Amino acid sequence: MTDLDARRTPVTQRAVEEIKRRIADGDFGPGDRLPTERDLAADLGVSRSSMREAIRALITLGVLESRHGAGVYVTALRPADLLETFSVLAEVSQGATLLEVLQVRRMLEPAATALAAARADDEQIAHIGTLLEDIDGEEGTVSADLGFHRAIVAATGNATLVAVSDGLSSASFHARVWSGYREAGLTAKLREDHHRIHEALLARDPDAARAAATAHVMRVERWLRAGLQTPAG
Amino acid sequence: MTDLDARRTPVTQRAVEEIKRRIADGDFGPGDRLPTERDLAADLGVSRSSMREAIRALITLGVLESRHGAGVYVTALRPADLLETFSVLAEVSQGATLLEVLQVRRMLEPAATALAAARADDEQIAHIGTLLEDIDGEEGTVSADLGFHRAIVAATGNATLVAVSDGLSSASFHARVWSGYREAGLTAKLREDHHRIHEALLARDPDAARAAATAHVMRVERWLRAGLQTPAG
DNA sequence: GTGCCAGGGTGGTCCGACCACTAATGGGTG
DNA sequence: CACCCATTAGTGGTCGGACCACCCTGGCAC
How confident is the model at residue A11 (pLDDT cuts 50, 70, 90)? Predict the structure, then answer.
């Protein structure tokens, strides 16, 4: 924080910190339009190039968004905005990390499902039931399964939880886990799990929901663990 | 993906996607050094400015890191690298979001503490005990409390869990929650909670650890909820 | 062999120009 | 008067080049 530190800190990073500070301080609120890149650059005493890099970083973080020709705006700053970056984890993660991610899901999903059982309204549960039919109907459609779990988490009404959960189970991650699911009777077992979870939600039974979700995640983890030991291309 | 789409996609974003693709395809592996910014820019047919913005975005995502004068490198791609971004959530979040974050922690911490009780080795538990003394000794030092909880999560051996947990409890978040803790006998109560958690770890008792962690997080949540209803400056 | 240091190469920063796009302006038209 | 549309100022997007700060290597002196 001293001048000496500032001297050695890249100007771009300093600009990032400064803009974040102004947002945290309320100078810029959600939805507000920022000064032009040129003005901001002049204000902070940096070149427009460096200012653009700083803005680019904050855009990547989900804090800002830019509209070509219109200006740069602060996002709604909702957790979903800020945690979108997260998906890169699933994009590049491999092997052991997959198990770690699954272990975190094993902690979150049961609690989330239980919470959903207590909070979800009729409409949400009905929607979840619809997704369940999609999974049954077509073949294991990854996106349908993804939507099923996502809808349950969304039913908790906790946007932050949704964002975290999304990050831990992006489409590409799901796809990687599911690739190979056709084998054995696993698909049928998972289908049973899903129905059991749905029944618990219908019964508004948090304990049953927690148990069903736990069993489901553990089944997936067991399968994945076995699959990783005899990896295929 | 068509030419028409590419025509309307900003070159910077295209560069980001391309580099991510090359990493995902294994062209660039963890720890590898990338071609120079100038070479990359020429390779992808963009200016160095745009290439730098693309690199800046990937640095922000935790995929790349640059060393002044030495080159740009792919990170180890460990979850901790990729989830660091995350902390911005805690930096700019307010009010209701704070409660949402705490609710997620209420799901994670008990499970994490229980896991730590089962997995932690003697050295790790001893280290946690040391941190506990720091909290007792000095005044409520935010950083010491942060370190205490972080050490517990780290003892689970799950790097992904550590990264997620860190994101949900960055220093600034902790500071905001703790600001005002001096009041009442709350500090003493929290101290009791910490000791109870440590005892459970020493006893290698996952159930007791889970219970102690649950009680602790719920106490904080209850306090925060009451505090938000009568907000101060 | 050891230590120093000078050079080349790299990322960091700045500048100025032009392009692409948006939105407000204002005149024309019904 | 109300509506539409071309104009135009202003904004972000891209480019090219220049220079600075820093690292690393290799050759030199000791």
Answer: very high
A192, with CB counted inside 10 A (0-12, 13-18, 19+), is middle
Q: Do domains A3-76 and A82-229 have the same CATH topology?
A: no
The topology (CATH level 3) of B3-76 is Arc Repressor Mutant, subunit A (1.10.10)
Any idea where the domains of chain B sit in the sequence?
3-76, 82-229
Sign of the CA dihedral running B35, B39, B42, B46: positive
pLDDT in tens, B160-176: 898 888 878 765 555 55
Q: Do A158 and B104 touch (CB under 8 A)?
A: yes
Nearest beta carbon to residue B56 from set A53, A82, A103:
A53
pLDDT of res. B34: 97
Q: Kindly report, residue by residue over B34-43, the tens digit of the pLDDT.
A: 999 999 999 9
Enter the CATH code of domain A82-229: 1.20.120.530
Mean pLDDT for chain A overall: 83
HEC states along B13-53?
Answer: HHHHHHHHHHHHCCCCCCCCECCCHHHHHHHHCCCHHHHHH
Measured CA to CA, the distance from residue B79 to residue A89 in angstroms comes to 6
Q: Hey, is the C-beta of B171 within 8 angstroms of any chain A C-beta?
A: no
| pLDDT tens per residue across span B98-121 | 788 888 989 999 999 999 999 999
Closest CA to A47 of A12, A10, A74, A4: A12
DSSP 8-state assignment for residue B212? H
- Residue A32 carries which DSSP code? P
